[in-house]
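Many introductory courses stop at the sequence. We go one step further.
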Amino acid sequence: MGGARRHPEGGQVVSCAALAMGLVAVFLAGCGGYLSQADGTPRVMIRVEGSDTMVNIAQAWAEEYHRQQPGVVVQVLGGGSGVGIASLIDGNCDMANSSRQMKPEEIADTQSSRGSRAVEHVVGFDAMGIYVHPTNPITGISIPELAAIFVEHPAITRWSQLGVTMPVGVPDTIIRVSRQNSSGTYSYFREHVLGKGYDMGLGSLDANGSKDAVALVSRTPCAIGYSGMGYATPGVKMVPVARQVGQPWIEPSVENAKSGAYPITRPLLIYTVGDPVGAVGAYMQWIMAEDGQEIVRQLGYVPVK
């Protein structure tokens, strides 16, 4: 337990050395881990794991909650929605962040392994951004065109097929930036853009996290990728999206996500085993209350209320 635990996307989460100082006993329970310090002062640890899309918001929640409740430490790890759900099933975390809904077999495994049902909490909404390099002149794209780019055996492989003339020196070939298949973002994009029963094409550049996907696009002038709207940077631009070819393009914005006008909007989810109680229950109530939802808004997501 030497250095600080860092998430793969680079954010420092919990200093293991700091937690270890004065620590004499650790007891992990379903409603949070209880840490007894040398002076006898109790400290509660809540373990959160899962969606890379939600890492930035989960870290912001954890930091602000600890500021308000110094006796509670929220440990946040990423790895993908599937990783978080598996950890919840195995009893290794208290809350699983997910940018997709649990699968029927995961729900059954939770009941079998933990002896209680998985409870879904909608904590916000995210517009999935379609990202290109700032020098790309494209002004909009439709869901069917996105599907034709990312699907197995793609029908669209060049920007010129979309009527886009790339800048001098930039290849016409489309480079697809995608995510690893354990990602909830990957699963959502495959189901809601490609459609059920269709697989993603091979040969894409697959990023380990939401931040990495956007960074890859920023370094690749002929690339197109997808990630949460909250991960936009000056090094990329988000492309407006239409539901069908010929229909109006809709800007990815908080207002359009909240109204449902933007066609690639999804809920941000937290799963617990049973209704959360104790420290985890108090933390969940805080996330859904004014302070937690204000952080959702500040980070470019859409609050539930």
